[in-house]
Amino acid sequence: MGIGERLKQEREAKNLTLNDIQKQTKIQTRYLNAIEEENFNVMPGSFYVRAFIKEYATVLDLDADALMSEYEKDLPFDKEEKVVLSRVNSSKKNKAVTTTPAFFSFLPSLVVVLLVIGIVVVVWLFQQRPFDGNDNSADQPTEQTSEGPGDEVSMPPENAGEDQQTQDSEEETNSNGTVTDGNEETETEPETETTITLDEFTGNDLTYSLETNEETLTLSFETTGQNWLNVENANGERFVYETLTTENMPIEVDITEFTEVYVKFGNPHSINMKVNDKPIELPAELSNSSDPHEMWINIVK
């Protein structure tokens, strides 16, 4: 016996219809029927298969986790999810560990030492060079002191090594082609993208798919007249249950943590709905309709 037949027997034993289950779970009847027939190909994805089965089992007072474990081999699992996991693991394994050779760690100190030696040698050579006939110092009396020429050698400033190390660091950074501002590197922010697609329109029921990489999602409602409005999440938790008017608009709902949004609204010809700044386009057939409609939005991130 498969998991679909098991759920069907439990439902019939409680004298419940698929419409009864739909009212409690807000899952469309066609998806419930697909679960009982184990026709998972019509579902939006393997995530929704598991989520819907858990909701179905909970309504029937079954242990959802135990049921999922018992029929785990019968449930689908997207290949794409496996590929993503394997890529993440392989990238961690194949990430090259870069180490700096020991020679380069001593390079700044070596440069400083050579620089000091060079300065000392240049000063010493300057003191030892012969004076030519144009030097007027020979005609002037010299003051005899007990100090030798070596006492006139000037040492480089203490921060000479630090300045040279900073210069080497800047040259290395520029050679790598990295644009810097002080110690901060410029980074390009990834572009955000949200698409909303109408998957199905039957009678007064509409089903949309929302794919996005945005961190926060806000569903907003505006109107040019009046619209009855009911907004719930996949668990049936209600967030809006009132009349939308031009005086209390916009009405906004944070759906960042939602996997599915259920919206029931009237007078579709006068209502405007958006997710962030992306409008939800209603079919042209609703432009003159005043009947209440039900809408499901499946969110994929």
UniProtKB/TrEMBL annotation:
Compositionally biased tracts (Acidic residues): 182-192
Gene3D superfamilies in UniProt: lambda repressor-like DNA-binding domains
Superkingdom in the source lineage: Bacteria
InterPro entries for this protein: Bact_Cytoskel_RodZ (IPR050400), Cro/C1-type_HTH (IPR001387), Lambda_DNA-bd_dom_sf (IPR010982), RodZ-like_C (IPR025194)
Residue segments, region Disordered: 132-195
Coiled-coil residues: none
A GO term for molecular function: DNA binding
UniProt xrefs under Pfam families: HTH_25, RodZ_C
CDD domains in UniProt: HTH_XRE
Keywords: Membrane, Transmembrane, Transmembrane helix
Biased composition (Polar residues): 134-147
Membrane spanning stretches: 102-126
Record domain Cytoskeleton protein RodZ-like C-terminal: where: 221-284
Name of the protein: Helix-turn-helix domain-containing protein
Organism (species): Gracilibacillus oryzae
